[in-house]
Specification:
With 274 residues, this protein is α/β, with parallel strands linked by helices. Helices cover 47% and strands 15% of the residues. It has 10 helices and 8 strands. Helix 6 packs antiparallel against helix 7.
Amino acid sequence: METKVALVTGSNRGIGFEIVKGLCQKFDGAVYLTARNEERGLEAVKKLEELGLKPLFHVLDVTCEKSVQDFAAHISAHHAGIDVLVNNAGVLDFDKSVSSYEDAKKLIDTNFMSLLTITKILYPLLTNTARIINISSDWGLLSNIRKQVWLDTLVKEDVTVDEILHFVNEFLQAAKNGKSSYISFAGHYGDYKVSKVAMSALTFVQQREFTEQGKDISINCVHPGFIMTDMTKGMGDFTPERGAKAPLYLALEAPQSLKGAFLWHDCHRVNWDD
């Protein structure tokens, strides 16, 4: 019998690390801790091994297509496919409520554009009952956007990936145009909000596509709570361990029929577009 495979992107620390820990404890299969920095990734693996857990490690930089291809080649060579994929990798500069265009582009490339690379290269390796969990945020709710045209577009049942890309690129143009244009689009931390709203919208589009293709794959997004991590400078309401609760529920316990949902940190479903 082939060993099942779970992997978590950006998982050498924070919520990702705790999700890997929970998967190692409860998932019946191989669990990959991934990180773009090999040294930090191996340090994280060592911490889990000291707890008696046995994660596997592979370098994975989600912003580098070659890195994603190398990881896909490794999975193809050693496993039958991917059963659980947690898209956790993300960045936020908590000190900059309004980023420069260059910083905004870097954030969006990491938090959103990388998902399109993963879609192209890793999704073909998904098993027919795979579970995808996208780590979003309460800033990934549609109400964070201030442009009516995008509120109307993104809520459509037939919204497309191209329309989501247009939304992201229009924000980046606003960032180029200066602070007032940036703020009018999505307020402070607009780049992070746009990246997570785009992630949420992409989740629903991809679930529709999987269903149309006759696949039993589930893809959901989740707000893990305001978590005390390095990214938030230690501020937050919950520990990373608590933040892993809802993602682990989606990976391990949720019914396979739960598809295309936005889950809150306490595991209840919320309306994305309220």
